[in-house]
Input
Amino acid sequence: MKRIHFVGIKGVAMTALALWYKEAGNKVSGSDVVEEFPTDEILAQAKISVLPFDEKNISRVGPDLVIYTGAHSGRENSEVAAAAVRGIPVVPHGKALGEVMNGKKQISVAGSHGKTTTSAMIACILARTGQDPSWAIGCGIVRGLGLPGHFGKGNIFVAEADEYVTDPGHDRTPRFMWQHPDILAVTNIEYDHPDAYATFGDMQAAFKALEAQSKMTIKSADVQLSRVSFGDGRTFFTLSEQGTKLFDFTLKVPGRHNARNAATAALVARELGLSWEQIAEGLLAFGGTKRRFEIVGETNGVKIIDDYAHHPSEIKATLAAARDWYPESRIIAVFQPHTYSRTHALMSEFARAFEKADEVILTDIYASARETETLGISGKTLVEETAKYHRNVYFAPDYAATAKRLRATMQQSDIILFMGAGDIYGWSKRFIEK
Output
């Protein structure tokens, strides 16, 4: 059995691939920082040990292959360097994922937003029809499906296709360029990752390059959402083609954006030969993914929701979903900006993103490990800009200040949404426990 060591294993994409390798019969280990991550529970459940970063891990583990993430210094990480010195193959995550997809019918889901949910929906539909696909989905547990990574015996591999670069500072190849999709689903394209793409045109060019090496692309508007409605904790939608109804669908997840994600998943499944009845059954079985409108619990009649939204469009979609599902409730949005580069580049869009919230609490900016410059902004800068468009905006730099503000303002039947891609993922659980 081969020994595979993952440097930076707690990243959601790395965890998914590690699970695939373990189910494929390999001995898997990993290393990362000691702080809590959303994937800790999954790695423990899979009995994959996680060591603190230390170059001596390479001699202790004795891996045949080292897979590393672009975070944590990429190939300059001390463990990666130690492996290279010993002649052990070292491969970045994006390339490793592309290699394990080879030999399977590749379903790649790309897009600025929605690729995690759409990938999970496709995998759920296929799994429910007994096709046992492989998948690698960058999230925690997928309700209705299971773990985010799976080695299937079927001939299909479903994976997210991430537009970010392979290894910042070393390999600027977009990560999705290591994939060669038989079917490419594109949810949307919007400007993001200003540290990787100078302009929106540069991002578009990357997606066009991926399309050029794909056999088929699902992105047309021939099939349309002709109806979307909500009720009793469900989302209902109808797909039509040229005015003719195709089928009615029901989802257990909220939001018009998820109806669009489901429409994309349905078209991919249809292209694979499944009936509308099979597709509808699979979509109904999908219960959402970790950190995507995840209802963490309730405290004193207040519902607490955690969400990964870290881009203005994602914030708008998440808040709109909350308003659709809880039209009578007061909505409090707690947002932790993620990276100085993104916050700086999209400052105006962020400031206008909270229209559906009754109250907004903004924190300090969570910096990426790759960032060295603040670009002259802070969380207070975003508060000042947001206050131009929203009456109830407050600055709470950290968890303690946020919890204090929430305790002072929350009322029964409120909805509190914790949003962001930084360490805010643990705040909702802490708030309930306290």
